[in-house]
Amino acid sequence: MSGIYRGRIAPTPSGSLHLGHARTFWTAQERAHQRGGVLVLRNEDLDPDRCKPQFATQMIEDLRWFGFTWHEGPVVGGPFAPYVQSERRAMYLESWRALASAGAIYPSPHSRKDIAEALVAPHDEPGENEPIFPPALRPAPSNFIMPAEPGDVNWRFRVPDGAVITFVDGRHGAVSRTAGVDFGDFLVWRKDGYPSYELAVVHDDHAMRISEVVRGDDLLTSTARQILLYRTLGWQPPAFYHCELVRDAEGRRLAKRTEAVSLAWLREEGRTPEELRLGW
Ligand code: GLU
User: Fold this and answer.
1) How many separate domains does the chain show?
2) Model confidence over 122-159: pLDDT tens digits?
């Protein structure tokens, strides 16, 4: 991709940001600064049950306190507004239509699990990958008529079983994942009327002209899924740089659900961002 470097940080306001987020976002900010580029902040608030407005307000405060500044995004605006995913549904629908006209997706029976799986980015732990959606449950392409709207049903992307998706990561070099083995048919649209993480993030990274995506190693498999979406939509994927994850003393990935060292808590304890960044 030519032109100015455009990076992004894309937090989900479903709880407090912790040091793991800060570490990844700091890498994203540094890479944008080193290249004289632009940093975009995008609020990925597509999960109505978990993303609360107070978390979004706190997220902005935490990011500012830690030393993040963004050229485009919530509060500051920019040419690709809105930068809040819950306000971009009409645009995601265009991408759903493009996938539907390519015959790349199919309606998938409703289930609570389907929904739960689509709401958030599927962060991998070794041995903790999502179960592969059974190909036997796919309808044959001729078995349904493509509607003009997704309606209240989940939609999945039909992966090309056995195809090896390879991309060059800025830190790891060549990374490969095999469709149908490392991941299966994944959700692109939820029956509650919103796109899945995979579709929304591809749509937005393309629409916001992101030239490099910096995020955690737990999303390497998602990058392979997303490359399939880029190909089907006829879009050039950005460059990718996956960062090492911050782990706790037991070697587990820091996650909001483990009540990991939140930035808000560290601030209350009197810690300073400069001290927390020592050694980064
Ligand atoms: N909102 C996603 C998350 O918090 C962003 C993942 C990404 O950077 O693509 O996991």
Assistant:
1) 2
2) 777 655 666 788 888 888 877 778 899 999 999 999 99
250 secondary structure, DSSP code: T
Q: How far apart are CA 197 and CA 201, in angstroms?
A: 6
| Contact assessment for residue 202 and residue 226, using Cβ atoms and an 8 Å cutoff | yes
Task: Name 84's bridge partners.
Answer: 43
Q: Which amino acid is at 12?
A: T
Q: For 57-78, write each residue's pLDDT tens digit.
A: 999 999 999 999 999 999 999 9
**Given this model, what pLDDT does residue 251 score?**
75
What's the residue count for the chain? 280
Q: Is the pLDDT of residue 228 over 90?
A: yes
- Going by pLDDT thresholds of 50, 70 and 90, the confidence category of residue 247 is confident
Distance 139 CA to ligand 1 centre (A): 30
Ligand 1 within 6 A of CB of 219? yes
Summarised one tens digit per residue, pLDDT across range 186-225 is 999 999 999 999 999 999 999 999 999 999 999 999 999 9
Q: 3-state secondary structure string, 15-72?
A: CCCEHHHHHHHHHHHHHHHHCCCEEEECECCCCCCCCCHHHHHHHHHHHHHHCCCCCE
Residues 38 and 105 in one domain: no
Q: Does residue 11 line the site of ligand 1, with CB under 6 A?
A: yes
Domain identity same for 139 and 163: yes
Domain that holds residue 193: 88-206
